[in-house]
């Protein structure tokens, strides 16, 4: 076990969000021990802003507090986008929580800085039943780095190719399977300016193009950067994916895609202005619960796997996960995590917003999950496709396991600039990729110097 580290002693490490002096990537227990008492304030960060999610959390907290008299869960909403700057600030102030939930891409830099208690995380995995508690292979792909667990999934989802079934049928086309099929569908379902074939989220205020580029590259068996820091921007797969996305965006999408974010996919699909978008099953779930939408339009919304290339679909998993920071009250964190994973409590959370949350664990009552009316309605389409993608895919850039470089590369908006340069800026693919590769090299060099 690595040395004991209190919340305040980490101040001496001198870590920041963008420049970390690594204090041992397999950091062991923090200030707590397995015999810590479960009393007083138990600090918990989560990204769940919706009321229905928070109601389910409060019910879990009530169970935890009833079983641990004197304990009081202090929950704080920390959005995904705030987390990368929030944890360094909390580390400097000695106020890291006892348990937190975010995404592995955000948690990995914290782990690389030695601020995840991997001993406590390993013990939690064993207490839950080992790897068999999770979807096969899920931890190794999305939550383990160099053998140490740093993130355990609370729920998962998978990005899909969503389409208007009515427009597809009117065009006389089948559900798209390949990249070529999707391009043909985008052309057939494009009626500029009334509506577009495929609206992509290419805004540089988001990472939608980074996700799309990775998905298409993965469909052909490639990647953007390896976990060892080998950048792959000049590969044939990246060149082909760039040419493909830029061509479709330019010919069958709006130029307003340059300011369109992932969050805009709801409106673009629901207002009829886009025949296809890439999003999760949640997009269709929201349509079903939004008052005032045309019922015929809602009924026409459907989805399928991301398009296949030479290596199958580019499944991209979202893995909203929990971790125990260094310096936590381990006993409290362990007990609270296990309450959140209890089958009935976990199921209630998953169904708090049906088709937003899908299980990445094996302890869920599947009959009860499928009994939800909305899940039942889409059981054989977007629900089945999402669950298959969760089993077969990974977090973006984690195809060979957690990758310390991909988060910074995506956050740098290299992909957004690349696709925009080619689609709407008149730049040749080779020149745009050379520019992207140079930007990626700078990031890889910086991070490599930090992690040794």
TrEMBL record:
It comes from the Bacteria. Keywords: Signal. Gene3D superfamilies: Periplasmic binding protein-like II (3.40.190.10). Residues 1-23 form the signal peptide. PROSITE patterns: PROKAR_LIPOPROTEIN. The keyword NAD does not apply. Pfam families: SBP_bac_1. This is Extracellular solute-binding protein.
